[in-house]
């Protein structure tokens, strides 16, 4: 169904008015990033795809310089970077290109979050003088979303061809000197000097009667043909709170089942507590300290969820289990190949992404170290730089990685929580700055201040110079704040450095550079060229003219 004209106009005006506090991300920018992974280069080999209709390479073919198992963002970024240096590269993938992020993760999730953000604007429009309504069509959005994902799959394929990377369709297993690939026409042995494991992970179900039969995973969420009237989301991680928020905002009756007390237990307490209260305010029911789901029974299409503590939810249309993920290592033959794994099955690697088997590397979710798409891309590019670009000791840093949780409201975070900082540096060495306020978006709302959705911020500093080691925010537009602050923190920014940046007003992010007391702390900079006290930070270069 189409939105009525006045409502469509309202959304446009609402977004413009909210520009200082909510940026509706243009997802198509993702395809721009895909096409810009690498600078242009002259292709030295034709691109080929090995599939059921293609002839496999002969046993006498020269070995590949790099063979990548997994066609997700990390694997493809590595392959294309290596090919840029002239390496002979192939990627083995049995499914759709793009991996979890493109197909059942970041991209389609953000589309759904954007839809929920539109619903929030519709809900708020009366406070800006707009009248009218709109109907939401889940099927229409699903069709548009799936078509967009399919387009991204094609962009990945095109980028591989443009980079002269061979694509091999099949399931790979390690062997000495390369891999064995099971294709639709039989097994093919392919030699490679270096092998990269970039296979990612998959959602797992906990044990229990009827759980795997009567529940869906986060993957299954994107197959739902309709918006469920009543949904139970099980889990305490970012996937659980993101999908619970989307479903609730779009109109489902949502219950969040937690094994312990609160969601996002590894996050700063300010984030945990604020999100918890906001989910309740928005109408999400929360079952706490349940010990997890014991069983799920279905009768005539209606599901009954029973928890370990005896709690029961009846009349449920959809049960979504978001209780964890596991590395997709079983098909790889790691033990026989001499590749060691950790207690939860993740591949063990050193700081250079190399496994315990020389010449075999791994990155991304299969390693379990900062499971984020941009992290895998960065790790892969640095690996290719070191192996083929003569960039000695090139490696990626897993410290101070900014991330966003697309909950409602969204969360941005980087670095240590207050608790983690005190445990690492000692309580006496940690100083914390906090702020809580209502975004200007809610300024014209004729409701009590306590009922306005809050924005909460925390800055965690360490040492006499107050170096910033943690930055946390929850609230409107938090998803668009953290990237720039991440750059500053990677450069060793102090509280004084933050204070030295003049605020952009009126925005929510200005609060981070005006946290009280402003400008009265130790006047020490973490910058190579100090910006404090009006110092000139312009580059000191001489004209070449």
UniProtKB/TrEMBL annotation:
**What would be one Gene Ontology cellular-component term for the protein?**
cytosol
Q: Does the keyword Metal-binding apply?
A: no
UniProt-annotated stretches for the region Disordered: 526-545
Q: Which cysteines are joined by disulfide bonds?
A: 101-106
Coiled-coil intervals, chain numbering: none
One GO MF term: glutathione-disulfide reductase (NADPH) activity
Task: Using the record's annotation, list all stretches that form the FAD/NAD(P)-binding domain.
Answer: 64-380
Output the InterPro entries linked to this UniProt entry.
FAD/NAD-bd_sf, FAD/NAD-binding_dom, FAD/NAD-linked_Rdtase_dimer_sf, Glutathione_Rdtase_euk/bac, GSHR/TRXR-like, Pyr_nuc-diS_OxRdtase, Pyr_nucl-diS_OxRdtase_dimer, Pyr_OxRdtase_I_AS
EC number(s) in its UniProt entry? 1.8.1.7
Name any Gene Ontology BP term.
Answer: cell redox homeostasis
Cofactor field: FAD
Catalytic activity, as annotated? 2 glutathione + NADP(+) = glutathione disulfide + NADPH + H(+)
Primary localization class, coarse:
cytoplasm
Keywords from the named record: Cytoplasm, Disulfide bond, FAD, Flavoprotein, NAD, NADP, Nucleotide-binding, Oxidoreductase, Redox-active center
Q: Where does this polypeptide localize?
A: Cytoplasm
**Binding residues for FAD:** 110, 365
**For the Pyridine nucleotide-disulphide oxidoreductase dimerisation domain, which residue ranges apply?**
401-515
The answer on whether this UniProt entry bears the keyword Oxidoreductase reads: yes
Q: Which residues bind NAD(+)?
A: 235-242, 324
Q: How is the cofactor bound?
A: Binds 1 FAD per subunit.
Q: What class of enzyme is it?
A: oxidoreductase
The UniProt subunit note reads as follows: Homodimer.
Query: NCBIfam families this protein is in?
Result: gluta_reduc_1 (TIGR01421), PRK06116.1 (NF004776)
Function, as annotated: Catalyzes the reduction of glutathione disulfide (GSSG) to reduced glutathione (GSH). Constitutes the major mechanism to maintain a high GSH:GSSG ratio in the cytosol.
Q: Which family does it belong to?
A: Belongs to the class-I pyridine nucleotide-disulfide oxidoreductase family.
Indicate what this protein is called per its UniProt record. Glutathione reductase
Please report the organism this UniProt entry assigns to the protein. Triparma columacea
């Amino acid at each position: 169904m189409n939105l009525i004209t006045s409502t469509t106009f309202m959304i446009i005006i609402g977004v413009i008015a909210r520009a200082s506090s909510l940026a509706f991300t243009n997802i198509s920018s993702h395809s721009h990033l895909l096409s810009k992974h690498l600078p242009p280069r002259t292709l030295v080999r034709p691109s080929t795809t090995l599939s059921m209709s293609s002839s496999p390479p002969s046993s006498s073919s020269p070995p590949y310089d790099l063979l990548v198992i997994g066609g997700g963002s990390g694997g493809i970024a590595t392959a294309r970077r290596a090919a840029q240096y002239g390496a002979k590269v192939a990627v083995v993938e049995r499914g759709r290109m793009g991996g979890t992020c493109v197909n059942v993760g970041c991209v389609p999730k953000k589309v759904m979050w954007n839809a929920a953000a539109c619903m929030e604007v519709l809900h708020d429009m009366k406070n800006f003088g707009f009248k009218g309504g709109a109907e939401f069509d889940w099927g229409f959005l699903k069709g548009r979303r799936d078509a967009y994902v399919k387009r991204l799959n094609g962009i990945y394929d095109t980028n591989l061809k443009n980079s002269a990377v061979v694509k091999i369709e099949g399931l790979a297993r390690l062997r000495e000197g390369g891999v064995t690939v099971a294709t639709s026409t039989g097994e093919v042995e392919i030699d490679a000097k270096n092998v990269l494991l970039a296979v990612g992970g998959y959602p797992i179900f906990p044990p229990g009667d009827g759980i795997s039969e009567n529940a869906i995973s986060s993957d299954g969420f994107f197959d739902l043909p309709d918006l469920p009237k009543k949904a139970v989301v099980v889990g305490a991680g970012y996937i659980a709170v993101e999908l619970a928020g989307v479903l609730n905002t779009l109109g489902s009756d949502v219950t969040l089942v937690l094994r312990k007390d609160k969601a996002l237990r590894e996050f700063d307490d300010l984030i945990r507590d604020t999100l918890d209260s906001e989910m309740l305010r928005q109408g999400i029911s929360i079952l706490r300290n349940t010990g997890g789901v014991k069983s799920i029974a279905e009768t005539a299409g209606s599901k009954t969820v029973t928890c370990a503590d005896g709690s029961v939810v009846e009349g449920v249309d959809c049960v979504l289990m978001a209780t964890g993920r596991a590395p997709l290592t079983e098909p790889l033959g790691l033990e026989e190949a001499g590749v060691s794994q950790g207690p939860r099955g993740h591949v063990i690697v050193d700081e250079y992404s190399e496994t315990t088997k020389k010449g075999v590397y791994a990155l991304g979710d299969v390693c379990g170290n900062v499971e984020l798409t941009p992290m895998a891309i960065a790790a892969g590019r640095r690996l290719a730089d070191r192996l083929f670009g003569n960039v000695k000791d090139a490696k990626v840093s897993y410290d101070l990685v900014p991330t966003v949780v697309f909950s409602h409201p969204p969360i941005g975070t980087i670095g240590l929580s207050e608790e983690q900082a005190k445990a690492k540096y000692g309580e006496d060495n940690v100083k914390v700055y906090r702020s809580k306020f209502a975004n200007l978006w809610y300024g014209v709302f004729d409701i009590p201040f306590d009922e306005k959705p809050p924005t909460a911020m925390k800055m965690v500093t360490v040492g006499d110079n107050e170096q910033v080691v943690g930055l946390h925010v929850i609230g409107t537009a938090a998803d668009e704040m953290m990237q720039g602050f991440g750059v500053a923190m990677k450069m060793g920014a102090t509280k004084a450095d933050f204070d030295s940046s003049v605020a952009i007003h009126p925005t929510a992010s200005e609060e981070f550079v005006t946290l009280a007391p402003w400008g009265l702390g130790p006047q020490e900079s973490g910058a190579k060229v100090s910006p404090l006290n009006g110092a000139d930070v312009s580059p000191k270069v001489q004209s070449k003219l």
